[in-house]
């Protein structure tokens, strides 16, 4: 992301840097080192691009992380929530989708099931990616579509990462309206979220009598993570119920979610 023209600030008429730079200028050099909102850089990369001494870069980067302008990731540093604020959540979503691309493909190959990548957006699950074979067409989920978080396995895995108070704030009113026609109530949801927390964050559901699906119904299993910028994301697999055996599938989904967290 280019905030300002770096060269215009770094050089004077002679083509050399000014003798002294203000702290604000040096902070700008460091933030401008990130050419893309989804880029992750090592400290050495930031040092070279910013043109500052390594000790100076390290000190300022640490302060920028503390203030939210940068974020630490498993592989280095990325733009933080403050720097990304002007871009909205799309930048964070793009970063997650890029980081998850190979992980989602591998999870599909290892399980043979439909894999969903979702993020928690307010009270809803927002689907960033969906990979699967012919069975994927039988599922109504679509990339870019939304689903009330409490209704989906992936959504509930993400809600389980929140405090009960935060869950009430997000979905309490919606559940109260849905109570008369839906199977979920707020007490029942909290019971399920506690079960998920006690199952190492794994959410599982068996849905029977689904139109267009065999008599066995659909099984789905999910695990969620929280990224360095606070975004909550989930990986969820779905398939014919008899194939989604938690004892086999849960370790694969957990492993994939850990890899995604490390990649971010």
UniProtKB/TrEMBL annotation:
SUPFAM superfamilies: GAF domain-like, Winged helix' DNA-binding domain. Keywords: DNA-binding, Transcription, Transcription regulation. Residues 21-81 form the HTH iclR-type domain. GO terms for biological process: negative regulation of DNA-templated transcription. Signal peptide: none annotated. GO terms for molecular function: DNA binding; DNA-binding transcription factor activity. It comes from the Bacteria. Residues 75-264 form the IclR-ED domain. PROSITE patterns: HTH_ICLR, ICLR_ED. Gene3D superfamilies: 3.30.450.40, Winged helix-like DNA-binding domain superfamily/Winged helix DNA-binding domain (1.10.10.10). Transmembrane segments: none annotated. This is DNA-binding transcriptional regulator, IclR family. It comes from Rhodococcus tukisamuensis.
